[in-house]
Amino acid sequence: MGCFGFEHLYYAGLLGKATKHLVQTIQVDYPNEAKKDDFTVDFNYSTNKEDHIQLCTFILNGEAASVNYTY
Fold first, then answer.
1. Rounded Cα–Cα distance for residues 7 and 45 (Å)
2. What's the angle, vertex CA 47, arms to CA 42 and CA 49, rounded to 5?
3. Who is most buried in 15, 40, 42, 45, counting CB within 10 A?
4. Cα(37)–Cα(17) distance, rounded to whole angstroms?
5. In the chain, what are the helix, strand and coil shares in percent, each to the nearest 5?
6. Could you tell me if 23 and 12 are in contact, meaning their C-beta atoms sit under 8 angstroms apart?
7. Per-residue pLDDT reduced to its tens digit, 7-45
8. pLDDT at position 69
9. How far is Cα 43 from Cα 35, in angstroms, rounded to an integer?
10. Are 10 and 1 in contact (CB under 8 A)?
11. Is 48 left (phi over 0), alpha (psi -120 to 50) or beta?
12. How far is CA 18 from each of CA 27, 35, 62, rounded to the nearest angstrom?
């Protein structure tokens, strides 16, 4: 899909009602040879009154980001 590990953001809103088991955390561990810092991305989901995912917020590379779903 080309979402670089964030496919769950697509599936959370694709059909309106998200899967029961959305990703809560992504842990990226690089090998020592890569000389990159490991990092973690934590996700928070908000639902509307119909129990559809409405908003996903997360922090990536120290910056806050969000995905807003409309139906």
1. 15
2. 170
3. 45
4. 35
5. 15, 40, 45
6. no
7. 666 666 555 555 567 778 888 888 888 888 888 888 888
8. 75
9. 26
10. yes
11. beta
12. 22, 36, 27
Residue 1: per-residue pLDDT: 43
What would the two tokens of residue 8 be? 């769950």
- Amino acid in position 27: Q
The single-letter code of the amino acid at 33 is E
Distant-in-sequence, close-in-space partners of 28: CB < 8 Å, separation ≥ 6: 38, 39, 40, 41
Q: Give the distance from CA 26 to its chain's centroid.
A: 8
Q: Which two tokens stand for residue 56?
A: 């996903």
Q: Rounded CA gap, 45 and 37, in Å?
A: 26
Task: Give Cβ neighbours of residue 30 (< 8 Å, ≥ 6 apart).
Answer: 36, 37, 38
